[in-house]
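Q: Second attempt. The first request was missing the SMILES, so the protein and adenosine-5'-triphosphate are both included now.
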Amino acid sequence: MTTTPPPPPRPGPVSGRGPSDFETGLAASPQGVARFEAPRRTPLAGIQHLLHATPTLVPVIVLALSILVFGLIAGERFFSPFNLSLILQQVSIIGILAAAQSLIVLTAGIDLSVAAIMVLMSVVSGKLAITMGVPAPLALGASFALGTLAGMLNGLMVARLKLPPFIVTLGTWNIFFALNLWFSGAQSIRSQDIDAAAPLLKFFGNSFRVAGANITFGSILMVVIFAVLWYVLNRTAWGRHVYAIGDDKAAAELAGIRTDRVLVQVYALAGFICAIGAWAAIGRVGSISPQSFYEGNLQSITAVVIGGISLFGGRGSIMGALFGALIVGVFQSGLRLAGVDVLWQVFAIGWLIIIAVAIDQWIRKVSA
Amino acid sequence: MNREPILKARGLVKRYGRVTALDDCDFDLMPGEILAVIGDNGAGKSSLIKALSGAIAIDEGEITLDGQPVSFASPLAARDAGIETVYQTLALSPALSIVENMFMGREWRRPGLAGRWFRALDRDRMRAFARDKLSELGLMTIQNIDQPVETLSGGQRQGVAVARAAAFGSRVVILDEPTAALGVKESRRVLELILDVKSRGIPIILISHNMPHVFEVADRIHVHRLGRRLCVIDPREHSMSDAVAYMTGAKAPH
Ligand SMILES: Nc1ncnc2c1ncn2[C@@H]1O[C@H](COP(=O)(O)OP(=O)(O)OP(=O)(O)O)[C@@H](O)[C@H]1O
Ligand SMILES: [Mg+2]
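A: Got both inputs this time. The predicted holo structure:
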């Protein structure tokens, strides 16, 4: 038997300091910046990519198409400045709720209590100003503070107690609704009484006319709220943290975000927006009814979903929710003017929700 | 050597339910050094650096930074103290862009009114900075600094996380397997970056399973086994096979 002699010492460092053998070839490797040809994509994959980059595109297209189609069907009556401004008016309250809802959904949460907070706050300011004779600005101030507090309560339970947002807000929806019935004694406050005691409460019902359109202050308020939130979410650090939390909360925490604090702030801000919505709602409806907007919670979620904001959090633009609310308004107005029964409006909205979520799922599957 | 450790831990204990991830663990990082931490999978290396960087709360033990007792309640607290960490999971937000990820939680605001009152982000300045840092790392197959991190390859993501830590670390930089997903060339660039950070006088904790790399750059090697420090060896006096034998329990250190 022959034994093989030990191998000769290998050249270069083996376990020493400095690069290993196999890495010495690196010096000769090209050092430039790699360039890639843009990969060829099928048209469908191209669309998928585009939507991934600009998630608001779907609701914008749907909105444009639906305006076009209903314009063709119902003609002048639909396309008139008056009708278009009426749609804006009709969606303004749900739009404001959808703005609040979007904030929560972006953090991968959901808020079933937005409309309940809003109605409770309109009852609070109405009761204080009209029944108890508190000056209207003070009454409104109190409702803003309480609305913020109500949102904060949701936020604390979600962030500190780690309870699921769906359950927390399902609970507070009921709680706020019961408080609202108790505080109002299930009584509405009549329009005349508001006019007599505190006309300021109806401020957002005022309107002005331009070119045949009737623009209410409430419609403008809604647009302003969306514009401000868009800025905050896209151009400030806090806004980017909201997205980061919805995207991956654990990662955001490790990256140095105080995620629980931001979450509480998000819910509190949503509550504050609901309280502003309460003021606008008094102007829109004219009276204050504890039973109003009972479906507002779900309608705001509908607008958010149709607007392409992902229920999984972290994706979508707040503007999508505005377009979502408008799409619902356009469908309702268009179908009504076309003489279609209300039940088919509901039917159509139902399909819109499902299609919107299906598109969201498809977009999220985009491959790099 | 009579210098005091910059980061020191004594008797760390961390339990996850019935698993004890850290079992009376000690740790020392000297100023200006590269300390490698090696050990089997599940030995508790990540748990150790998470305890040091405030990502997990320890059950027992104490940590001192520059001789001062510290107890970081969150990763942010550790970061504010100058400890920058690349976690094994990277801690990136997939839907956000490379720049946004690099500046997460320490964004730059525009000067003047826009920044002070309207809290506007200085996006151009952050972009330029991020591009610089990534170029330094040579991770330049990335063309669009605004592209979402989820559209990057695993290695590119790791590059972004490493660049972030290297750019912002001021007192200690911790890297948990920073080259695990990187190619040969990119790994080499990360090693160069590590040496570069060291040349700025900042000490580094490097967790790695890559023995040639560990032996190349480390000044000392902390061998971690079963939730505690087994020994600290000098790479110039021990071979790789010694190190592997210690960490797997095949041989006892003397
Ligand atoms: N969040 C957790 N919950 C429960 N157990 C955990 C958790 N994190 C770690 N452990 C346990 O703690 C032990 C140490 O894990 P750790 O991640 O620190 O190991 P490691 O040395 O970093 O391993 P690797 O080389 O695979 O990264 C393992 O047994 C693991 O199962
Ligand atoms: Mg690990």
